[in-house]
Amino acid sequence: MSLFSAVEMAPRDPILGLNEQFAADPNPNKVNLGVGVYFDDDGKLPLLECVQQAEKAMMEKPSARGYLPIDGIAAYDNAVKGLVFGSASEPVVSGRVATVQALGGTGGLKIGADFLKRLSPGAKVLISDPSWENHRALFTNAGFHVETYAYYDADRRGVNFDAMLASLNAAPVGTIVVLHACCHNPTGYDITSAQWDQVVAVVKTRGLTAFLDMAYQGFGHGIQEDGAVIQKFVAAGLTFFVSTSFSKSFSLYGERVGALSVLCQDKDEAARVLSQLKIMIRTNYSNPPTHGGAVVAAVLNTPQLRALWEQELAGMRARIKVMRQKLVDGLKAAGVQQDMSFMTQQIGMFSYSGLSKDQMVRLRNEFGVYGTDTGRICVAALNSKNIDYVCQAIAKVV
Ligand code: PLP
Question: Which of the listed CATH numbers 3.40.50.300, 3.30.390.10, 3.40.640.10, 3.90.190.20 matches domain 67-289?
Answer without folding.
Answer: 3.40.640.10
